[in-house]
Design a protein that fits this description.
- With 497 residues, this protein is mainly β.
- It folds into three domains: 75 residues, Immunoglobulin-like, CATH 2.60.40; 235 residues, Pectate Lyase C-like; 163 residues, Single-stranded right-handed beta-helix, Pectin lyase-like (Pectate Lyase C-like), CATH 2.160.20.
- 9% of the residues lie in helices and 46% in strands.
- The chain has a 15-stranded parallel beta sheet that branches.
- Strand 1 and strand 2 form a beta hairpin.
- The longest helix is centred in the middle third of the chain and has 15 residues.
- The relative contact order is 0.08.
Length: 497
């Protein structure tokens, strides 16, 4: 729910508020939160959680920073929901980590209505793929684990999905919602996944089993297309595209994921395709050691918000996508109105836009993120074949090894678009760039803190890029700039860390 400049998510007895960082707000700005005219807290974050409120109550909330009113809203809490415990009759799910609970869990999910909460108590509940539906709330208690198996047959059937920018049939993910359709809007709505528990996939073990099975299945194709295989990232790229995610959202709207640990998908952890209004907050993403272990991937989706979350990933913490040439150009569904703030990376690549961005990416806002412990920092990337665009990216008050807007060579299959991609209108303000990346083996290497390059065709240079009030933690650096125009460097400081 959005009221003016405030966004609100409410459960039965607590609310999460969040708001855009005002353009004039300095780094470390403080916000005062009042409830019914009484101050209840102060924060230097652009979000606030109000707990312990009574069912069915209404409250006025005000957010103020100095003399500036950020926003005013009315909080309306709903009624108490009926709790459905998966361990009780008629479901009798076992949390011993050995009994397969897929069928009983699915029955409990199917029986959970709009006025119910599916309650997962402490325990290790082994399961295969599960199917979610509209108007569903699932709560995982502290110590509760939905543990995906490592048996590839537990993720049948394959379902329409999209991986690395191409629509295809992939194995079902651990949690699945919605039906993929690039030509329509939402067909699944109003899902809440929250609590203090963990959703854990089959990880790299499941990934390897699927890759080897798929490699055997498509052996003739791979043998007949040696040059295509050589052009890919590695020999696992093509057979690896059928791997499932941890949570797969297709054509979904109004989904809230809050408070959970999300870990060890066999590929990406949370993937939203052709979705709208997806919020993720106060989550921990763990997939270090998993190939393609992205954390949070909005794909041709709109109004997706991520905040107050931590990442220890085997690939991108965040990857913003919109399809791959030529299919992404033809479908032409941009990824737009994406917000990422108050997030921290412990390892992995950082926040990336692309490389699959053929449908376009615009209006991405990133602020108050600590990406110092990452490889790429903040990266906008594409191959010359992609087409599409990235524009309207704003990054403020973040720490990162580097900022890159550049061409890449990997994952370069597919018929080229008529024109190269276009990177433009990006604004970076009050960043601290370390010039030192953290590699996968946790060694550190010096890197250029700013790297910009566009595409060789005239008119497709990277343009209108602003860096303002940037601190580089090196006494002296070289900034590689190529195929760009309208680049502004204002108040750049190179200082010894």
């Amino acid at each position: 729910m959005k009221q003016g400049n405030l966004n609100i998510r409410c459960t039965e007895d607590y609310a999460v508020l969040y708001w855009n960082k005002p353009a004039a707000a300095p780094a470390g700005a403080e916000y005062t939160v009042s409830l019914n005219g009484e101050v209840i807290g102060r924060t230097d974050k652009t979000h606030f959680t109000i707990e312990g409120l009574s069912y069915g109550s209404a409250f006025r909330v005000d957010i103020v920073s100095g003399s500036y009113c950020v926003g005013t809203a009315t909080l309306q809490f709903g009624h108490e929901k009926r709790r459905i415990d998966i361990t009780e009759a008629p479901y009798f799910c076992r949390g011993d980590g050995s009994i397969l609970n897929t069928d009983n869990l699915q029955r409990a999910i199917n029986d959970c209505g709009a006025d119910d909460i599916l309650y997962v108590p402490a325990g290790n509940f082994l399961t295969g793929a599960l199917r979610l539906h509209s108007d569903l709330e699932i709560y995982l208690a502290k110590g509760a684990v939905l543990q995906g198996t490592t048996n590839l047959h537990d993720y049948a059937p394959r379902i329409p999905s999209r991986f690395e920018g191409t629509e295809m049939r992939c194995y079902s993910s651990l949690l699945n919602a919605g039906d993929l359709n690039s030509k329509t809007g939402a067909n699944c709505r109003n899902i809440i996944l929250r609590g203090k528990g963990t959703i854990c996939g089959g990880g790299q073990e499941l990934a390897r089993k699927i890759i080897e099975d798929e490699r055997a299945r498509i052996k003739s194709f791979l043998d007949d297309n040696e040059e295509l295989v050589k052009s890919c990232e590695n020999h696992d790229t093509i057979p690896g595209r059928v791997r499932p995610r941890l949570i797969n959202l297709s054509n979904c709207e109004n989904v809230w994921i809050s408070g959970l640990t999300l870990k060890n998908a066999p590929s990406w952890n949370v993937h939203m395709i052709y979705c709208n209004d997806i919020q993720t907050n106060h989550c921990r993403f763990v997939s270090e050691g998993v190939w393609n272990g992205d954390g949070w991937d909005p794909d041709s989706s709109t109004h997706c918000t991520l905040f107050a979350s931590e990442f220890s990933t085997g690939d991108d913490a965040v990857a913003i996508k919109s399809g791959k040439n030529p299919e992404g150009n033809e479908i032409n569904r941009p990824c737009a109105h994406i917000k990422v703030f108050d997030c921290r990376s412990e390892c992995g690549h950082g926040i990336c836009i692309g490389s699959e961005m053929s449908g376009g990416v615009e209006d991405v806002q990133i602020w108050d993120c600590d990406l110092a412990e990452s490889l790429s920092g903040i990266e906008i990337k594409a191959t010359p074949k992609r087409g599409g665009y990235v524009r309207g990216v704003t990054v403020r008050d973040c720490t990162a090894p580097r900022v890159m807007l550049h061409s890449v060579s990997y994952n370069d299959d597919g018929e080229p678009a008529a024109q190269p991609p276009k990177f433009s209108h990006c604004f970076f303000e009050r960043l601290t760039l370390t010039g030192e990346m953290l590699d996968h083996d946790r060694t550190r290497h010096e890197v250029a803190p700013i790297e910009i390059s566009g595409f060789e065709k005239a008119g497709f240079e990277t343009e209108d890029i602003v860096f303002k009030d940037i601190t580089i933690q090196k006494p002296s650096v070289t900034l590689p700039l190529a195929l760009c125009r309208g680049v502004t460097l204002a108040n750049i400081a190179c200082v010894q860390d």
